[in-house]
Amino acid sequence: MTIAVYGAGGVGGYLGGRLAQAGADVHLIARGEHLDALREDGIRVESVAGDFAVDVPATDDPADVGPCDYVLFTVKSYDTEAAAQDLDPLVGEDTAVLSLQNGVDNERLIADEIGREHVLGGVSYIFSTIAEPGVIEHTGGPTSFTVGELDGSHSERVERFVEWCERADGVSAEASTSIRTELWEKAAFICAHAGMTAATRLPLGDVRGHEASWEMYRRLFEEVCRVGRAAGVELTDETVEEWMEFAEGLDGDSYSSLHYDLTHEKPMELDGLHGAIIRRAREHDIAVPMNEAVYAILRPWAARNEWLEDS
Fold it and tell me: pTM of the predicted model, to two decimals?
């Protein structure tokens, strides 16, 4: 199986490396110093499930790779539109492009460029990031991936990808016939968890330790679920309670990728997360004051980091 990883960062680098270990023909697409290190030394992963290194080809030009069976699309949400415009060289008649990104708008944006028939939805639960150029640090999380057709149907291409994931060490995967629900459930968790840890600049344990802050965490969940239901997504009444129970069990030192980007002067996925929920809420005339508060607090930081990245 031939796989291109478009955006070989924490998620794509880890999963791509594991699939290469399992025998897949993996090609990494990256940029900058990270690309230079990948070309020179391959990809190295420092993982709680066992460190490993694998030598795989890397490039910044999709035309160097050509059509693949699967494209793992793992760029940050703010790069989705630009990256989707570069997918054509990777996409053949039967290519599946699997988005493993945060947010609820990415699949639509990709489909606008290459056609909905090529796009799969995916949800990843993994704590990993680029520790240094060429090195992925995997610190934990379920390390699970859920994949599904956007129309909720069963398909051979989904099952085949899941089978390959199951061959790989340190990875679990499952097929879903309700991937839109999965995407919105994860969006609810991220908006609460990332929003509160970034807005307070404190780990989850501090948020849990204060009633008002923990209530805001819950209300962020509730708002996203209301918007999702208005958009036609099946989200049960138990969704919020299940996620709150999950959050209760997380390590008190837990932060989020949004907090990491904020504090490391990197571009932030704020518009793809809370911004997207606010836009959808306005379409359905739903009040989302908690998401608006997080967005208002973090927007100046996001703009500052964008300026620093470009300067």
Answer: 0.94
